[in-house]
Design goal:
It is a single chain. The protein is α/β, with parallel strands linked by helices and 319 residues long. The chain has three domains: 11-116, Arc Repressor Mutant, subunit A; 122-194 and 288-318, Rossmann fold; 197-283, 3-Layer(aba) Sandwich (Rossmann fold), CATH 3.40.50. Helices cover 50% and strands 15% of the residues. A hairpin with a 3-residue loop joins strand 1 (65-67) and strand 2 (71-73). The radius of gyration is 23 Å and the shape is globular. The N and C termini lie far apart (54 Å).
């Protein structure tokens, strides 16, 4: 299995489709146990919540069964699969593509792109806005996977140019007023991004006196995460904050620190600068269920309004 972060389909959809293909093809047979959520998430380098939601969706559809203490496995009788009737057509498509010199990967990308385009026709066109590429990529993937539909990542500095391509614009609460001032005619949805509570609990139990380097892509990120860290009892004097742009301070902070807190994306950028003795704790922010539900409600409301407008237009044409 593999996921493509730059592909046209959300990561959750990619994982679900591949697991179903493995079951349909017999690579995962009746009674076979799927990898635990944590293991598959680590292998694919995706959020554990994404894999957990995929497993839950597959269980609701009858593709897998989860039993406490035993894990998740393929049932003895998988659900009837209407897609099986399309296998000969898929084989003919692959054969025709090979005759034209196209690889299987190219065919898969083409089909995924066309499927995504059909999904997008139902609208609306949703954009997610952040001020830096690191947070933009991280939150966009998280939001797209949990919504189960594609969206367009947009840097705050490029928002005006992207305005004509968007119907609904989502952003974190930190930027919501700025986005509304730039796009006063758009529907703008502010989403709350909170630090991962499991990480906060781990930080709260760190040895007293340990020096903690808090590294973020932006100063806004430092301020937001520092508030959360102080809320679990870490004094201001123990925190050594720095941003990626503060190169000299960043080097000094990493030399002094006992522990480094940073998002997975930031850790990728600074991994070669962290001394071997320093303990590293990935510190990601997550979009809460309430934030996702709010955006999903706005999307449904938009579709409802679009459907009513279309209905009125058809009645006007008939009259």
């Amino acid at each position: 299995m593999r996921v493509r972060r730059d592909g046209p389909l959300p990561i959750a959809r990619q994982i679900a489709d591949q697991l179903q293909a493995l079951i349909r093809g017999g690579q995962l047979g009746p009674g076979d146990r799927l990898p635990p959520v944590r293991v598959l998430a680590g292998f694919l380098r995706v959020n554990r919540n994404t894999v957990a939601k995929v497993y839950a969706a597959l269980e609701r559809a009858g593709w897998v069964v989860t039993t406490p203490g035993r894990g998740t496995y393929v049932p003895l009788a998988p659900p009837p699969d209407g897609a099986a009737d399309l296998v000969p057509l898929a084989d003919r498509l692959l054969a025709e593509a090979a005759a034209r010199g196209l690889s299987e990967t190219a065919v898969a990308d083409l089909v995924a792109s066309r499927a995504s385009a059909r999904v997008e026709q139902t609208g609306p066109r949703v954009g997610f806005v952040e001020c830096n590429p690191s947070d933009l990529a991280y939150f966009s993937r998280q939001l797209s996977a949990r919504l189960g539909s594609p969206l367009e990542p947009v840097l705050l500095s490029e928002l005006r140019r992207a305005a004509s391509r968007l119907d609904i614009v989502a952003t974190t609460l930190f930027h919501v007023e700025e986005v509304r001032s730039i796009l006063p005619r758009h529907e703008v949805v502010g989403l709350m991004a909170a630090p991962d509570f499991q990480t906060l609990d781990e930080v709260g139990h760190l040895p007293p006196g340990s020096r903690i380097a808090l590294i973020c892509a932006t100063q806004e990120g430092v301020q937001s995460k520092a508030r959360s860290i102080r809320a679990v009892g870490i004094s201001r004097s123990r925190l050594l904050p720095a941003t990626l742009q503060q190169t000299a301070r960043l080097r000094a902070v990493l030399r002094r620190a006992d522990i480094v807190l940073a998002s997975p994306k930031v850790l990728e950028r600074i991994s070669d600068q962290i001394p071997p003795r320093v303990r590293v704790i990935p510190f990601a922010s997550v979009l809460g269920e309430g934030a996702i539900a709010l955006l999903a409600d706005r999307i449904r409301a938009w579709r409802g309004r679009a459907g009513r407008r279309s209905g009125r237009a058809r009645r006007g044409e008939r009259s």
